[in-house]
Amino acid sequence: xxxxxxxxxxxxxxxxxxxxxxxxxxxxxxxxxxxxxxxxxxxxxxxxxxxxxxxxxxxxxxxxxxxxxxxxxxxxxxxxxxxxxxxxxxxxxxxxxxxxxxxxxxxxxxxxxxxxxxxxxxxxxxxxxxxxxxxxxxxxxxxxxxxxxxxxxxxxxxxxxxxxxxxxxxxxxxxxxxxxxxxxxxxxxxxxxxxxxxxxxxxxxxxxxxxxxxxxxxxxxxxxxxxxxxxxxxxxxxxxxxxxxxxxxxxxxxxxxxxxxxxxxxxxxxxxxxxxxxxxxxxxxxxxxxxxxxxxxxxxxxxxxxxxxxxxxxxxxxxxxxxxxxxxxxxxxxxxxxxxxxxxxxxxxxxxxxxxxxx
Length: 359
Known about the structure:
Strand order of the largest sheet: 3-2-1-4-5-6-7
Largest sheet: 7 strands, parallel
Shape: elongated
Number of strands: 14
Strand content: 15-25%
Order of helices and strands: EHEHEHHHEHEHEHEEHEHEHEHEEE
Number of helices: 12
């Protein structure tokens, strides 16, 4: 369905903060597709992008919600990490975004459910929470939410009766009375298509300090020193405008050079499944071991599921949401057993065996 003029029909209204198609957005689309046969499902999206394309391909309608340039400028300056930035961030967003909030309030009228996804939509809908009450659902599929926002969402939900939906207990523990909803995905691995050449270890994530690209490179160096004959692929690039992410990417490039990994590490840059060649699926099809180096608890872990689907061996952080449903094995498979000697003990091997899957 193409871009449609907004209508005030009943049903579900999904308010998204970003036009891109990341792991959180993909999980949200899968969840809506599996759960709802809502003919009046409508998306509000900041601008045209891969998210609007995906929504259109699924046959849902969407329209554009005007952006707030002041809000965007403040958020791009890494605000929201301290009480001082909170004192500036929220009032400025409310003051300069009041017109947007009023327009959003008008679009929420008559809707049975309003689903909020993303930082900007959370902030705007917090203002409307007393009026929306139990109709409002905060969809939390991204761990990167400032601490002040997590506390505000929990407090407002508790007072106003709003609902909170997360896709792992690792995220849900930051919110009061959150409902954990696991993605409905199939974990059955596909037949391996790897050749008999050098082993390939892969890391897939956008560049961010907590995503652990530096840990991946340090592991690569130690793996080579331990006699593991492998190539190492880093898939991903910077997707957020804050300088800290670009600076971290440059530090990872320097680390690869300092560790003498030229010729053994390949930086693939930004890759997705819509128009990229090769796609993520194609890269994972050529991967023997997927090392998911995120150091902090995350949502369910879409990359982990994609790796298992592709038939890869997968090692990830114990606090990843995927470990809540997948079987954790204490040892690593040969020839990667040597990794156990120099990876932090929080990293474990998971397989497609399901422990429990609800939702």
